[in-house]
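#struct-help
A.M.: can someone run this one for me? Single chain, 301 residues.
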Amino acid sequence: MSLRLSTVILPYRRWQEGSRAAWQRAEQLGFHTGYTYDHLSWRTFRDGPWFGAVPTLTAAAAVTDRLRLGTLVTSPNFRHPVTLAKELISLDDISGGRVTLGVGAGGTGFDATVLGQEPWTPRERADRFAEFVPLLDRLLSEDAVTYAGDHYSAHEARNIPGCVQRPRLPFAVAATGPRGMRLAARYGQAWVTTGDPALYEEGTPEQSLRAVRGQIEKLAVACAEVGREAADPERVLLTGFTPERARPLESVNAFVDFAGRYRELGITEIVVHWPIPDSDFATDEKVFERIAQEALPQLGG
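D.P.: on it. Structure tokens below:
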């Protein structure tokens, strides 16, 4: 099974002070997709620079030619499907059809309260996600949409000429629970996991592998329920949140071993964080570039 290698470039630097160069270098190194996080602020970066995802991806589209671009992930926490769809159609046009929408239910971080609301419960997040994804699917696929739901509405929303990619740009749905898995099976061209968050602090690599294997099995069940082949959605692992943390990026051999074990489970794309000094994503840049250039040939990807 072939494997893709992608990267996520956090929008913490001014465009002319390192961000532009990172996106261009990601293309030069041969990464499949360059993603960025769609947050208004995030974790330890909250009190420092942090730029918007869609403008960043638009700028990246203008200085690259082949690199796919995407969010990892967008959520309903501060997004509305109608306005988001318009931005995505514009971004897909500017990039020449290189956009993937990573989308998830959101969490309880800063994005959950920045608009002044109380954080939604897990049930409320799942309910909103269950409306958000199907409505976004329609908005990106149809010229005009009218919809009235419990959480979102659209009144004669126009999205002409639609996406460059047909019938719409691809979705990569982040999910672990049953409702999210069903959304991934029905609407996702890819499914995204970070592993099992409960294992991050004290779990073992072996436990993480078993957890992801179980998630992939649940995805297969969800696919069967909608009449879809289990192997149809791409299966994406965002690294940095499994018990190994940053250790797979310590050497080419370490990464090949890590990636090979997840490829055997059925993972088809692995996403690594672009190096950020003095952070959880601090990585030797020379080693990182060697991994980008040398790992996939060793894995047969």
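A.M.: thanks! The beta strands are 4-8, 33-36, 68-74, 99-103, 144-148, 153-158, 171-174, 190-193, 234-238, 269-273.
D.P.: also worth noting: The helical segments are 19-28, 53-63, 81-94, 122-141, 178-187, 205-225, 252-265, 285-299.
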